[in-house]
Amino acid sequence: MKLPFGGDYNPEQWPEAVWDDDHRLFDSARIDTLTVGVFTWALTQSSLEAYDFSTLDRIVGRAAAEGRQVCLATGTGAMPPWLVREFPEVTRVDFEGREKRYGGRHNHCPSSPVFRRLSARVAGRIAERYAGNPAVIAWHVNNEYGGSCYCDLCAAAFRDWLRKRYDDLESLNAAWNTTFWSHTFTGWEQIEPPSALTEHWKGPDFTAFQGITLDYHRFMSDALLSGYLAEKEAIRRFSAKPVTTNFMGLFRPIDYHRWAEHLDFVSWDNYPPDDDPATAARMALAHDLMRGLKGGAPFWLMEQTPSTTACRDVNPLKRPGVMRLWSWQAVAHGADAVLFFQMRASRGACEKYHGAVIGHAGRDDTRVFREVAALGAELERLGEATLGARTPARVALLFDWDSWWALEISDGPSRLVKYLDVVLAHYRALWRMGADVDVVAVTADLSGYDVVVAPALHMVKGDLAGRLEQVAARGGSVVTTFLSGRVDVDDNAFLMDVPGPLGPLMGVRVDEWDSRERGVVNPVRLADGTLVDSSLLFELVIPTTAEPVGRYENDFYAGTPAVTRNTFGEGHGWYVGAGLEQAGVDWVMRQVLDRHGLALPYPEHVEATLRVAPDGSRLRFLLNHGAEPVEVAVEAGLDLLGGQELQQGRVLLEPYGVKVIRLRG
Amino acid sequence: MKLPFGGDYNPEQWPEAVWDDDHRLFDSARIDTLTVGVFTWALTQSSLEAYDFSTLDRIVGRAAAEGRQVCLATGTGAMPPWLVREFPEVTRVDFEGREKRYGGRHNHCPSSPVFRRLSARVAGRIAERYAGNPAVIAWHVNNEYGGSCYCDLCAAAFRDWLRKRYDDLESLNAAWNTTFWSHTFTGWEQIEPPSALTEHWKGPDFTAFQGITLDYHRFMSDALLSGYLAEKEAIRRFSAKPVTTNFMGLFRPIDYHRWAEHLDFVSWDNYPPDDDPATAARMALAHDLMRGLKGGAPFWLMEQTPSTTACRDVNPLKRPGVMRLWSWQAVAHGADAVLFFQMRASRGACEKYHGAVIGHAGRDDTRVFREVAALGAELERLGEATLGARTPARVALLFDWDSWWALEISDGPSRLVKYLDVVLAHYRALWRMGADVDVVAVTADLSGYDVVVAPALHMVKGDLAGRLEQVAARGGSVVTTFLSGRVDVDDNAFLMDVPGPLGPLMGVRVDEWDSRERGVVNPVRLADGTLVDSSLLFELVIPTTAEPVGRYENDFYAGTPAVTRNTFGEGHGWYVGAGLEQAGVDWVMRQVLDRHGLALPYPEHVEATLRVAPDGSRLRFLLNHGAEPVEVAVEAGLDLLGGQELQQGRVLLEPYGVKVIRLRG
Amino acid sequence: MKLPFGGDYNPEQWPEAVWDDDHRLFDSARIDTLTVGVFTWALTQSSLEAYDFSTLDRIVGRAAAEGRQVCLATGTGAMPPWLVREFPEVTRVDFEGREKRYGGRHNHCPSSPVFRRLSARVAGRIAERYAGNPAVIAWHVNNEYGGSCYCDLCAAAFRDWLRKRYDDLESLNAAWNTTFWSHTFTGWEQIEPPSALTEHWKGPDFTAFQGITLDYHRFMSDALLSGYLAEKEAIRRFSAKPVTTNFMGLFRPIDYHRWAEHLDFVSWDNYPPDDDPATAARMALAHDLMRGLKGGAPFWLMEQTPSTTACRDVNPLKRPGVMRLWSWQAVAHGADAVLFFQMRASRGACEKYHGAVIGHAGRDDTRVFREVAALGAELERLGEATLGARTPARVALLFDWDSWWALEISDGPSRLVKYLDVVLAHYRALWRMGADVDVVAVTADLSGYDVVVAPALHMVKGDLAGRLEQVAARGGSVVTTFLSGRVDVDDNAFLMDVPGPLGPLMGVRVDEWDSRERGVVNPVRLADGTLVDSSLLFELVIPTTAEPVGRYENDFYAGTPAVTRNTFGEGHGWYVGAGLEQAGVDWVMRQVLDRHGLALPYPEHVEATLRVAPDGSRLRFLLNHGAEPVEVAVEAGLDLLGGQELQQGRVLLEPYGVKVIRLRG
């Protein structure tokens, strides 16, 4: 038993002579797991009734014969040409109203009965054929679900979805506040998908009616899910092995919280922006979000590039050590597999310059290959130590696709405030202080956490406000920010003081907010005298029971509270009313963590996490994201990668260095 | 009798219990006028034959019962869903050729017979029902007309419009200069609306044939007008009360000069860019333009936000005092009503964060509510003092939609020169010097003015050149600028020296002009040695009878005149050939005003206007747009807001402060 | 015999009285050649069967009577309205899938049989009618071919083109690497034009499959060519006079190398960006490319503006002397005609502000007219001295449309690397050092050159690598750069070390490359200690047999070679692996030229070329592109423009000054 290592492998693009080279190189890099068949629909089905699995047989057979595990895909991530030609309904109509024809990938209409039937059929055939092959350890449905369709089939399916949600038009009209601008619907057939042809006056985020656009986001996420479920069900008829599809981390179009229960394990593809100083924290946030989808269960890192991407305007090279570091970061946050896209670089088309373990020249003496092989050896040495481990977090960060959508499709107060920016600033503060964080849905059980952070929680649904009050009541700390508590589940404003149902916990009310262009700064003086900048959004916070913790320095609202803390039961409600710069967010989060003894003293660029293995052993991960060596404090334990026992004290982390320590006792 | 105060009120969005709160709050803020029913088509007509006025009855009835006046809308500003479903022809085809489906507002095809018939029908029903209600003081047709349609109905209507304008294709071919690029039309049906599918090679301003695009602007303005007229006519059958529609000030798509005669009074919505230092002058220009539409008659400020907008990327808050200041500015320029959008913030959809007198929490102790109520009290104290007053301007600024369109759809000399920028720079210079300005059409009677300013008068039509010569001949001053006098009514170049028919008055000719990127500056040395920058456009002015007043300092045309003054009869023709910075425009305008004794000595940020009430009393308005207090000279008179008599001397204007003084004698 | 001087003349836009003025002015400016009829289709054919050449008769007749030569156009550069109305198939469908209707120009579907038939028919009629007129010296087909169409006719024609190229789908699938993303085509009818509706995920350069997009570029270039050929063939039935069409220099959409053999002489339109310091070199490159199309034969400068363009956002004025200078530059690089667009400015439509020899006022005392007339006189004095002269270049620069397309539609490594930027940087270095350069296709005979420069030669086709090796083997120098030698004729990566087949000649291999945002700089230390910046792309060059000439200074690859030189036979292969700034490219090219004694010692801004006349006389052109006078070394000879004999020594070039010297002996 060890952590699966390998990735996407497309030998169908090559003559079989090349396969020999592949497996030889896989051996030398300790690659034991291959994701096979992601884009093989045209290969396995050349017309409506012609299936041919001979090549796939040879691929899977060869992998099995070489002792490798296979994550076998249904191959429906891209449609074959004949399918589109024969059934034009399977393509999408885009936001601009353009009917797509054949081309690209990720392009199926999620409401097409033909696509549903035929994608499930091929998935079922594959499951039937390979279910008994012991090399197959998991099923990979489709690929990176996403995008939207606005065709007539989707319009009809949307109306059905709305009928189920609202029962009658009266409820729908109320939810969407249709009296505004004379939109009262008197027949279901009057409802059109919200697009450039209908409600949107600019791009996808500029709608006349937030309600319909929000519901279309929800519908589209569900519609894509039902395609996944159709394939999964077809597989289940033949196999009980785990089924997954590869998610994309911080991906707005799909509400992964609605999907997660239908995946046997979560897997995701990590393609961060390479050159951003916040990338390390951003990846950590994504990992924690993915881990949180199934209550903390380990996930697979399904894809990452060993070197560069290709699809961006500029595609920098991962520096030496970075691929290893980021692989270990995934494990540190809960990954039980480390896989790459791709094993061998394709010759032609749009990913020929995407990084690969094996390049066009087939060499094993490139830097990339050597680093992959070194990581393979390292993982082999590690064995099963990390498998199944869980993260014992005492901090929860609420992540909510509905708030993400609602905030970013809103007209006013500010298009410059982005949900992820606010979330990431708060997560990053926690991450810098070494706190393990569960990133969870707003419906998650919060009873086990000392700290709950809810950045930009625009929408407050169900009993959430009460559950947050309970966290504080029993001594915990709850943090929320500007633009939280504004709307209900239908995106209608709460008819009460801002922040709506969060008001009692926060002990504040907000009547006014200023929004300004990027670059307009209002300094905020914090309780200990620290001065930090704020920008973009400035809520004029009126404490009711809270005490001011920071005040604006400028403008007509100089002296007005910008940050407050409210004592609620045994605990606190913190309200951050201004768009603080990172240093300000750090300051607030440090006050919060310190109260609960959760801030760890690590130097800058050092990331620390803890995982607890099924046998109870505690694993400390230390990662240096900096280009300079750094000394850090360590607890006593066994350095699993270095192999030696460490005493409590200090240890040197190389640039991009990693330590995994099984703590003593 | 007092100035109406209040604004848009949409109680149909709320349960009636809320209406009680509304009227209680209206009382406390002295709100006496409500604009009702702007988006009620779906409310009053739920299908082709089903009209139901019961809710509107209760709204109007309640307002009347509370003693409030009603500006009653026809409700056609947005179409109900059933209308679009039943008659798809009522939606638009956009510039890109996309056929719109149901959604949004301001989206009706202006050439659709169905829309014309049904919008007029509902307008007539409303007029019939409420004409006798004494609370109703005006009719509000549709809402903020604008936009364009390119459907086949519009294509047919455009051809009819062209037949009326040109009689035969020979005239049309000559007007559009179709021989260029082989466009000679031999049948009316060959003519297509100019769009992304036809003549436009980039966006709406980039056309291969200026002639057809210019005529489409004119046609579309007329087509929208005919929809207004259909509603007005339907109202007139039942009511003689005044009819208006809300204009949008400096709004390019519609030639308000062609519309004005059909409004019983002008009303407009003022949503300026909040953070621009030129905003105060820009609003003043818009007010003066609106006042000029009907020969100086007072207008209504139909909408303004009490606090923030919502539809912009960034929506700043109006600073304390600014809402009051801008309200008084409207009155200073001729407004006889001060109304807001909106009375109560809607719960959902795209304007839920738009500022409102009453917010979601329904409070009367917010800053916004308090400021509204204070203004209400102030206006009540003022009573009828300003009603019906007129502005005794001795300066006219020519404003011409044809020139605006022609200049901005022109290929060459420079896309960076914007009509409004040039107009605003000249208006702003006059405004800074306290000159009252009538902003008038090129057809206006100019015989009463000392100074006529015609910035960027690209197109010269009819007998205008002669009338401008008369202004100068009798001792007046005429000012025009670069890019004036270039084309005739068909946008064909004058076959004579630039500036065409303005040449004799200006005493110059221009053979060459240079245009350069923003940031390329050529200093101009003015007659008294002052040095100012010029940029964007540089005409090489050759005086024939004029004398140079400013010369370029740089480039191969250093020493060439950039600004000239020509003695013509008893007066002067000034030609500004370069894109002068504001200080340069100020310098020129000061020379001009000084000659006529029209420049007043007010400090920066202080705006001064004069109105003469029907009883002959003269009202001096003084407005401080600055954030600092400032001392200004005042004539002797009665401070109408403060209540005390002032002697000639100096008075302090608070930041954003206002004085209205009834001058003695 | 003298060089033709004149340009586009559209008297059909004017009453005949104006023609008298025109010819009077032409005489005074020595204008002897008129391009007539470019947009006359609507004039000569007013419906399917109605041809009328009476106006064209008068135009051509008058020109002939005045002793002027005529370049007679077929008039098909813009379609008449009736054609589009009667045959909608003749318009295009654009990249976004929008079906165009009537409007604009350059808008015919190149695959439309109707367009093909009718355009050839009118071309034939014109040829038949005017073939015998001795004033007609050349035929001008259509105008500035370009653009793309994506209609169903083009889809069908594309499939035919593909059948011819690939014979069977198996070959096509291999060429496009369709196994990637499940694109295996099983029927020709499944293939769609690559557009926003199919393979493109962003604009025209962002495709999922480079193979199909590359082939569509090739197909579209060929499709437009076949329209040209149809017209040419129709002309040939009646006339043996030379046929051309006006090219556009560095124009990406059309592979002029595929067209050149079908033109009897090359002609092109020169509208450079006016304000760019690299403009002079850029024009020189374009001239040399145009000259290279037909093996060094002289070409016509078919269009240039005498003063300004109109279609740009900003249209600067040509400074005094610049029009003359740029005219002589064309001659210096091989032009045997100097023509303008346009003789008289049109009154209306989008080119009314485009510069013209005669402006709207019809004056002959403008600066522009005087400069044109002076040039006319100068050319008359020059007589036949330059006609038919050839450029004796010892340096070849490879220019390859396939590489241009392939590089710029590639996903990765960097969208910021532009083919022309790399080509121009290398050309500019050669140009600054006074080297005459032939810009040639990759299929050109390279045996006569000392130096061959192949910048960004992304695609290497046929036997090119071998022919480059021969250049070096016999003592020549070959230079190539980053991103060369990457793909084969189908845009599939070479399955070998980078730079593919160029590897042996370059003596390097490249496993990794870094790409970074603009502004990220890595200095490169060159062999003599010079330090230059590099940016955008950084290949980590591993010498196999080459010697390092420059090394990176920064990042983890500090010390790694960035520039290398390989001894190959008697000569050298130079590899420039980094995106060097101009100074770095200059440094490399100077080493190369110095070895062959080809760098001439001219000061900055001075351009020098040599042409050899048919009688063997050598003509030295010296052009000062600077605004300051400069002294340059001259050989002994006759100053053809000044008329005096010069001794070897130094001579002063005025700002924008020109010398043409017939060298002694």
TrEMBL record, chains A, B, C:
Report if keyword Zinc is assigned. Answer: yes
- Stretches assigned to the Beta-galactosidase C-terminal domain: 606-663
Keyword entries, A-Z: Glycosidase, Hydrolase, Metal-binding, Zinc
Annotated GO biological processes are:
galactose metabolic process
The catalysed reaction is: Hydrolysis of terminal non-reducing beta-D-galactose residues in beta-D-galactosides
**Carries keyword Phosphoprotein?**
no
Q: Give the EC class as a word.
A: hydrolase
Binding of Zn(2+) occurs at 109, 149, 151, 154
Q: Name one GO molecular function term.
A: metal ion binding
- EC identifiers of the protein: 3.2.1.23
**Glycoside hydrolase family 42 N-terminal domain location:** 8-382
Catalytic-site annotation from UniProt: 144, 303
Gene Ontology CC annotation, any one: beta-galactosidase complex
Question: Which residues of the sequence carry a binding annotation for substrate?
Answer: 105, 143
Q: Which residues form the Beta-galactosidase trimerisation domain?
A: 393-598
**Similarity comment:** Belongs to the glycosyl hydrolase 42 family.
Q: What is this protein called?
A: Beta-galactosidase
